[in-house]
Amino acid sequence: MEFKIENNRGFWSQKTIVCNEMITLVRNIDNKYEVYLCFKNGDKKAKIKPSCAFVIPSEVFIDGVLETNVEVFFQGTIIKRIPCDRLIIQDTDNELKAIPEVEILKSTISEHGNTINYLNSKVKELSNKLDFFINLWKEEL
After folding, report:
1. Which among 30, 36, 66 is positioned nearest to 51, based on CA atoms?
2. CA 93 – CA 18 distance, rounded (Å)
3. In what order do the strands lie in the sheet with 53-54?
4. For 76, which DSSP code?
5. 35: which residues sit within 8 A by CB, 6+ positions away?
6. Residue 82's pLDDT is what?
7. Largest Cα–Cα distance of the chain, in whole Å?
8. How far apart, in whole angstroms, are the C-alpha atoms of residue 20 and residue 18?
9. What is the dihedral of CA 47, 50, 55, 58, to 10 degrees?
10. CA torsion, ordered 117, 86, 54, 47, to nearest 10 deg
11. Closest of 45, 83, 80 to residue 62, by C-alpha
12. C-alpha–C-alpha distance, residues 37 and 39, integer Å
């Protein structure tokens, strides 16, 4: 599992993250800067200074929406706050699992896309049948 910081965004590399999973930090931020990860889930907060690997603190890895920000410091002064993908954490099969919100949105769009395509095909079928009956009706006149 990787957490990547690229182009002023933070991204989770997997679709599912489990509690206490070791996560590798991949960053293209110069080592002269100090990097902290700030987590917030409801009213619970945590802040860590990750090395090359870290674990999401258990106090924020609870049911809910986990918001993460990367704070970049230079000589003790914050110079940048980088937003990250939010994680939706749910208890499934007596185990806490986190799914990046973007993955949930992708699946929702996919489901709706399939539903829309299905409905469009049904509307077209009904429209063709209606056209057929309209033509029959006109011929009778």
Report:
1. 36
2. 12
3. 9-12, 2-6, 23-27, 53-54
4. T
5. 5, 25, 27, 29, 49, 50, 70, 71, 72, 73
6. 96
7. 89
8. 6
9. -20
10. 180
11. 45
12. 7
CA pair distance 37, 15, nearest whole angstrom: 20
Q: What is the rounded distance in angstroms from the CA atom of residue 97 to the CA atom of residue 56?
A: 12
**Alpha carbon distance 62, 138 (integer Å):** 66
CA distances from 54 to 6, 45, 131 (A): 18, 16, 64
Higher pLDDT among residues 93 and 59, named by residue: 59
Question: For 8-64, what is each residue's pLDDT tens digit?
Answer: 899 898 888 999 999 999 998 888 999 999 999 999 999 999 988 999 999 999 999
- Confidence check: pLDDT of 107 > 80: no
Q: How far apart are CA 51 and CA 24, in angstroms?
A: 9
Contacts of residue 19, Cβ cutoff 8 Å, sequence gap at least 6: 56, 58, 61, 95, 96, 97
